[in-house]
Amino acid sequence: MATATQGRKGELWVASGSGTVITKEPCEAVGLSTTIYHVTAPAKRYLSPAVPILVYANNILQTSGYRIAGGCHIVFDAAPTPPVTVSGAYLTPTETALVENWELNLETEVYDITSLGDSSRVYMSSGLLGWNGSFGRFYESGVGTNPPPWYAKAANNAAVIIVRLFEDHTEGWCWTGWAIPTAWTLSTPVEELETESFEFVGQGECVYTTDET
After folding, report:
1. Residue 189: helix, strand or coil by DSSP?
2. For 3-54, how does the pLDDT look when each residue is reduced to its tens digit (9 = 90+)?
3. Which of the chain's ends, N or C, has fewer CB atoms near its CB within 10 Å?
């Protein structure tokens, strides 16, 4: 029988910036998959979308037939010819402190294809899955920092960040992906600690994976 999990042991990890450049970094298959790869070195697996990502199979640059999922998986349409390597840049996510909660929403795109004169409404799924989320944390003013760090990220909404949303699992499972900051809110109640909230919209796919991938 399944057991409930405690939210209080969840974690949030974030990374932003242009990252550290890599050139034809070796990749390996994820688990028993023949079409999903990631960078072999765990510290270099989270790819920056700010730098062009070049994927090679058998030392040949791939111009189609694959996609980047979750910012860390290279998903091929068919099994590639090894070795698989990737050039670009990697980010190093770090745990975000003082987080009270995080929220993740997955949404399927659905369109209305009802014609005029139809007696009932008809909808069609596009097969596209969008995602967005938010988190709340105790506010750090960032002494000597103007503007405050999370405000700055939200204000620079052209910069894509990596988010990793951990649940309370001993195996270290998390939701991860590229995201665009969309909103920042500061709350200053008289009788409580100041808090801030941060919202983001996913870019590309969000994947559910372990912290080792």
Report:
1. coil
2. 666 666 788 999 987 799 999 999 999 988 899 999 999 999 999 998 999 9
3. N
- Could you please report the per-residue DSSP string of 60-115? EEE-SSEEEETTTEEEESS---SPEEEEEEEE--EEPTTEEEEEEEEEEEEEE-PP
According to DSSP, residue 150 is labeled H
Length of the chain: 213
Cα-based angle 160, 154, 212 (whole degrees, multiple of 5): 45
Bridge partners of residue 150, in order along the sequence? none
Verdict on whether the full-model pTM lies above 0.70: yes
Boundaries of domain holding 26: 15-91
Same domain? 56 vs 157: no
> Does residue 82 lie within any of the structural domains?
yes
Report the alpha-carbon distance of residue 140 to residue 163 in Å, rounded.
19
Read off the CATH number of the domain in which 115 is found: 2.40.30
If asked whether residues 110 and 200 sit together in one domain, one would say yes
131 and 205 belong to one structural domain: yes
Among residues 41, 44, 51, which one has the least CA distance to residue 17?
Answer: 51
* Residue found under tokens 């909103």: 183
